[in-house]
Amino acid sequence: MYQLIMDASLIVQLVMVILVVASVLSWLVIIIKARSLNAAHRASDEFEERFWSGADLSHLYEGVRRKSDMSGMEHVFSSGFKEFLRARQHAMPAGEPAHRAMRVAIARETDEMERYLQFLATVGSTSPYIGLFGTVWGIMHAFLGLSGVQQATLAMVAPGIAEALIATALGLFAAIPAVIAYNRFAGDVDRVAVRLENFSDEFVALLNRQGASKPAEGAAGAPA
């Protein structure tokens, strides 16, 4: 196979290089996204356990605010509680401003989780066509080589067809993992986003239950 690749035409070799690079980069993205999404799920589990354990919200907020690497749910909580405290200081209804702030935080977290997924979609959708282009070009090049031959045999075109089909195989090799990973990660992102939305709604309901007449210190107590 190595000799077939080395004997391939320049265009087919270029196609193979593109597909190999795309495959390597897609696997790198797959590993990074798998780790980051798994970490997001674990961080959400840990934060929700602390949040619903009866911890004082003011103390929880201070602990989260000091962190330099807030997780997705921590970011949503911090944004909402910060806006809640600001609204209460100005004697304004706090639920809706907090909800708006958390929606913005959720949108940012979702954008961050979706980073590089478009690359996987692009690799998955274009790699087969790039490989097909290399195949067509290789077969065309193999048959053009017979133009000056009196009697063509299968042995004369077999190497050219074989090297062309390698391009198709590389295209599928790059595309299939990318498509599977994209579908898996897109589903994971949707699940995390729904989880953040649900937490946001529950948190706003909790803040509203505190009562608009309570001072900020009383409103910042433990979850009911």
UniProtKB/TrEMBL annotation:
Pfam families: MotA_ExbB. Signal peptide: none annotated. GO terms for biological process: bacteriocin transport; cell division; protein import. Keywords: Cell cycle, Cell division, Cell inner membrane, Cell membrane, Membrane, Transmembrane, Transmembrane helix. The chain crosses the membrane at residues 12-32, 116-140, 160-182. The keyword Cell membrane applies. It is found in: Cell inner membrane; Cell membrane. Residues 73-197 form the MotA/TolQ/ExbB proton channel domain. InterPro entries: ExbB/TolQ_transport, MotA_ExbB_proton_chnl, Tol-Pal_TolQ. The keyword Zinc-finger does not apply. It is a multi-pass membrane protein. GO terms for cellular component: plasma membrane. PANTHER family: PROTEIN TOLQ, TOL-PAL SYSTEM PROTEIN TOLQ. The Tol-Pal system is composed of five core proteins: the inner membrane proteins TolA, TolQ and TolR, the periplasmic protein TolB and the outer membrane protein Pal. They form a network linking the inner and outer membranes and the peptidoglycan layer. Part of the Tol-Pal system, which plays a role in outer membrane invagination during cell division and is important for maintaining outer membrane integrity. Belongs to the ExbB/TolQ family. This is Tol-Pal system protein TolQ. It comes from Thioalkalivibrio versutus. The lineage of its organism: Bacteria, Pseudomonadati, Pseudomonadota, Gammaproteobacteria, Chromatiales. The gene is tolQ.
